[in-house]
User: Fold this.
Amino acid sequence: MTWADNIGAALRGLNANKLRSSLTVLGILIGVAAVILLVAVGNGSSQAVQNKIKLLGTNTITIVNRGRFGRGPSTTGTQTQASTITAADVAQLEDPTQAPDILTVSPVITASETADYQAASTSVTVTGTTPTYMGAEDYQLEAGQQITSADVTNHALVVVIGQDLVTNLYEPGTNPIGTDISFGATQFQVVGVLANKGSSSGEDLNDVALVPYTAAEDQLTGYATSFTELIVQATSSKTVNAAENEASDILASDNHTSVADLPFTLINESSLLSTSASTNETFTVLLGAVAAISLLVGGIGIMNIMLVTVTERTREIGIRKAIGAPRGAILGQFLTEAVMLSLLGGIAGVTIGLIGSRFRIVGVKPVVAPTSIIEAFFVAVAIGVFFGFYPANRAASLRPIDALRHE
Amino acid sequence: MTYLGNGQAPLLPSELSAPDGSAPAEQRTAPVIALRQITKTYRLGEVEVQALRGVSLVIERGEFVAIMGASGSGKSTLMNIIGLLDIPSHGRYWLDDVDVRNLDELALSRVRNRKIGFVFQSFNLIPRTTALANVELPLIYAGVKSKERRQRSEAALEQVGMTDRMHHLPNEMSGGQQQRVAVARAIVTNPSLILADEPTGNLDSRSSEDVMAVFADLYAAGRTVVLITHEADIAQYAERVVRVRDGLILSDERMVDATLARPSLGSAP
Ligand SMILES: Nc1ncnc2c1ncn2[C@@H]1O[C@H](COP(=O)(O)OP(=O)(O)O)[C@@H](O)[C@H]1O
Ligand SMILES: [Mg+2]
Assistant:
């Protein structure tokens, strides 16, 4: 009995009961498609978080003064004393012996300004900072150069502008480099243009203009007692939490207080997101498990149908044995039928799963994991073998005379 | 039953005497079938049914034997044992000098496939499968390649006069046609032994004649044919009639008029 004979006989057997066969195939199809789709949805939402982490910048912690940006000042009297982030704090944080896991510290002063260039005018958030800011926040230069340490020292009136300013202030095709734009009364010379950066949770990352913080203090905000915030960049993604601890320790000792009473908030967004990413992974595993159960149920469906088939065709089995079918041939025939059901279900399930994953599901763009396709497919086939074996073996073990007498 | 006096010593089939007291077995070629003291007991809950009570029978190569008897006398039970579909409760059975007790399941299926062609009263064609595919089936199990399979199946169908119904399904054929396809399936592997359990039991007389003509041809070609019937005119095709009653052989006689048994090919009235 060759493979071709076996497959031919199996197809004829399945064809004899089209509706029954289709429903059984449907069981496996749903299982396989569910595995592929749900894992893809889980993957998609993990990947969305990963992308957010990438947009955030590289391994940064944002330190903001709670008095100004926190959840509102406490009404109990002692808290009214203004806590400040000063240049001295920055110097300590930057010290590699005190804070080995901190790579850079960028002070930030922001001011909302109206930017004018010739007749055009637009509002912009001006960020006064140091050269390390661009690296920490993952900004790339499209043209020109960035702010230098010398610019900071010299209180130079230079600006690196984001894409929003380019489109809002300049005629298309104009090169902004070298032009002067004014924020209020002060003219700044454009020295660089930032590359386009997407938006993160509604915040337009292209709405920026970077100037030396010394110049911002001079011209825009007036001498401030404190920076608006500090962007602390850790040496690597693994040291973000260590860097956060070092920063809070240093700030606590500078302010003669404990870490718990620190008047600053340290926002470690990447750690929040990686928590949510790992939650997502758990979620993906859970979804996959639920889908795998439906695949298992499909397998039980195969077993059920094959048992019915064997019972129905007991007489046929008797005839085949009477004309010399060896046990192995009967086993092969019914096992092939079972595997054929699961194979068809597997192929159809992969197809449906792939089609389904082209659509957005509950707000998530599914990302198909190639391994989930291969796994679901082979598990489906293995299920056919596993659940088909018992009924097939039952058929093969029948004694010819008993099978022939079966009504 | 004189040989029972031999005590424990196993008896070779050749030592069994021929039923009609003619020449002893060892002077002829080895018998195809040798049964010694075959019994078969069915147990239905508390009740025991003795279908065979000790049947000894020798059938030589090339014989055409009819087994006759009333319904329930044990004919089918005997035939199923001869055809290796069932096993006796006691007694021994040599098929072509091989004690079938020594054959394992795989060997039994191989013997059923190569040496025996079985024809049933109820045709037993596989449903939803064409005549040709039904006839090809034993050859599939014999491992014959598809091209040769096809040729041999067509030849077998031609032999039973069913060439024009080759691609018909069983439910598209009359009983006589189905039975002829079943005969084609039984002979397609060129078995030396053809067993038929009331092959004409479900057929009208016209179809019965068609089917019996095929058996007569096979007998004429030298095959051993064992056939169960309770119709006297069917038994007349045989050269030897064994009568069974209550699980025992009642009589075993050679037909005086054996001319009926060898009609010339295709000249049936
Ligand atoms: N599978 C079985 N279980 C129980 N009794 C059986 C079975 N097969 C046959 N018998 C009994 O054995 C006896 C002989 O049956 P069978 O060989 O079929 O007779 P025949 O073919 O001569 O009509 C009958 O009494 C029948 O009832
Ligand atoms: Mg009977």
